[in-house]
Amino acid sequence: MLSSVQLVLLATSVSAYPWVADAVEGRPLDERSLSGFWDTLRLGAKDISQSLGGVLKAQNDGKMKALGGEIKKGVDWIYAQANATEGFEGWPKPSLLDKSAADLSQELIYQTYNLDRVSNPPIWPIADEGHPYVAPGPGDVRGPCPGLNTLANHGYLPHNGIVSPDQLVRAVWEALSMSPDLGAILTVAGFVFKGDIDTMKLSIGGQVRGAGVGLSQHGTIEGDGSVTREDSALGDHVKVSQQRLQTYYGEIAKYGTNGYDINPTVCAESRYRAYQDSVQNNPAVDFSSTRHLIAYAESGFAMEVFRGANVSCTAETIDWFFNKEQFPPGWRRRNTPVTATEMIAWGMLFNKIKPTEPVRGLGIKGHPVKAGSSFLSEGTVKSNIEKFSGGLIKAVPKAMKYMAEALGQSGPLAGLDG
Ligand code: HEM
């Protein structure tokens, strides 16, 4: 959902940009800045109407209750499965909530969530046992998320890429150890903003009749400054870019531990490079405070989710997931569930290593303006979770209320969001 700051900025852009910036910089008004200006308007207006569409849909109490009911089915299954698993050490406690960016380090996060793989033998089965890879066929949709594409290729999600809320929450847990708090929040955002809440189906790719506009649609969830995808204004924002992948592998070789293992510096540097690319080349770059927070947290997926139960996460691991969209041979998910708290903590750590600011392009390449403050460099893990979920609570309160009920006020994850 666009924040009030973004709305004000967009309104300002209508009356003031890009002429103000040109005047400030002493540059003549050229054709490029004018076309960038119209691009900005076009994209901004589309984003607003899409987000508002989701907000309006989410007013329907009956539909939101049904969405919550679907999520609950998935969550109940997960709790039962986890608790019946021998060696499962329980749900992580939200002990990092009071930490600020200055307090965070890889060692602290590893200690808190028991992520030392050397002394923790894997407890979950090999990912493709019973879920072999099948390449997508002509009728199957795939989208901008390497995680969900892989899950559909292995049949954790329906192979055609059209999913229900229950299937989505379950699959990200069953195949990748994503805890229900994080799975449910992404599911709510996906269904409300990009899915069809009459049929309760969502396309993980482009628009499909009866399954919404799909996750590939730019705006609200899919955004600019992705590590392996182009910005929608500049190229293909859905398929992985081979050029960006090569750049990413170069970053792993340069900054990785022992020259091959992804660490917080790799995540921070690759995120910074993707951001700079958008800032320099996309006149309509949209990297709001919320997008900033999500994009940094998303970088934690490479650090910790694709690593699975392995000690190292290498360029080869990334190639399997991002390029082949398959599980690496023999791959197992990590023992400890991946919660929203942990992902926000990683995002704050990466931004501490290589800070950036939220920006919005108002039509001139290389000269976006500051768009709100960076949540990640201020406050605590708790306040950042509140900023993230608080935005959704304000925008789609009924959906979030039923989601919280599905997670269980007194269940194992109670209190995880502070
Ligand atoms: C539960 C539901 C999920 C939804 C609705 C979802 C949706 C999305 C969307 C729309 C994007 C594009 C965002 C962008 O423009 O950068 C994305 C990116 C991404 N997703 Fe997911 N995702 C989900 C779960 C996962 C899981 C379980 C993983 C596993 C690790 C994952 C890994 C990633 C990564 C690494 C990216 C960034 C790609 C890049 O920067 O190039 N996602 N996801």
Account of the protein in words:
With 418 residues, this protein is mainly alpha-helical. It has a single domain, classed as Orthogonal Bundle (Chloroperoxidase). 51% of the residues lie in helices and 2% in strands. It has 15 helices and 5 strands. The strands form 2 sheets. A 3-stranded antiparallel beta sheet has the order 3-4-5. Strand 4 and strand 5 form a beta hairpin. The radius of gyration is 21 Å and the shape is globular. The chain starts with a helix and ends in an 11-residue tail after the last helix. This is Heme haloperoxidase family profile domain-containing protein. Its cofactor is heme b. GO terms for molecular function: metal ion binding; peroxidase activity.
